[in-house]
Amino acid sequence: MKKTIQLLFITGSMLVLSCKENSETPQSTAPENGVDLSVGQEGVVDETSNPNIVQVASGSKDHTTLVTAVKAAGLVTSLSNAGPFTVFAPTNAAFDKLPEGTVEGLLKPDKKGDLENILGYHTYVGSLKTEYMQDGQEFDMVFGGKVKITKDGDKTFVNGSEIVASIPTANGIIHVIGDVLLPK
């Protein structure tokens, strides 16, 4: 009995000493594009995991407008969660095709709901690989509306916009497209 108490005391002491509190305050690591990836699920970084959808998009020079829009709509955390998600990701050039002032107008705080709807129309809950998409298929998107898949030989299109690249991520897949999809 005495040895058991001594053993428990030693084990408890070692546990207390090994759980020393770290008094350093974590530093924010907001990248140049302004998306703070140091909080919530979007802040999880390790040396072996693949990056999530937001992390991949944040690293793309061709998707800075999309990342700005995701941030303005408050969707960084949502698109960093486990998913899986499929995001049809318009390039900066796709946003440039919109009438002048459209993007700037949507980034205003009073247009957050409209921006969420447009971005939600680019997001599907599930992982859609192009090799499994069939001509004529339709998919219900996050914020309502359906997108239609068409095939022309080896090319795959979503609502008439060609999928020019597909990038697998830790929480789904990004399909790069050359147009902004607008709900019908």
Overview of the structural elements:
- This protein has 184 residues and is of the alpha+beta class.
- The protein has a seven-stranded mixed β-sheet with strand order 2-1-7-6-5-4-3.
- 30% of the residues lie in helices and 21% in strands.
- The model is unreliable at 1-30 (pLDDT under 50).
- The radius of gyration is 22 Å and the shape is globular.
- It is built from seven helices and seven strands.
- The chain has a single domain (43-177), classed as Roll (FAS1 domain), CATH 2.30.180.
Notable traits:
21% strand, 184 residues, 7-stranded mixed β-sheet, FAS1 domain, alpha+beta, globular, 7 helices
In brief, what are we looking at here?
The protein has 184 residues and is α+β, with helices and mostly antiparallel strands.
Structural category is alpha+beta
Helix content: 25-40%
Shape: globular
Query: By CATH's scheme, which homologous superfamily applies?
Result: FAS1 domain
Strand order of the largest sheet: 2-1-7-6-5-4-3
Order of helices and strands: HHHHEHHHEEEEEE
Our count of helices gives 7
Assign the CATH topology. FAS1 domain
The CATH class assignment is Mainly Beta
**Model regions low in confidence, pLDDT < 50 over at least 5 residues:** 1-30
> Overall mean pLDDT score?
81
Q: How many strand units?
A: 7
Q: Termini distance? A: 76 Å
Q: What can be said about the biggest beta sheet? A: 7 strands, mixed
Q: What Rg is obtained from the alpha carbons, in whole angstroms?
A: 22 Å
| Tally of distinct domains | 1
CATH architecture: Roll
Portion in strands: 15-25%
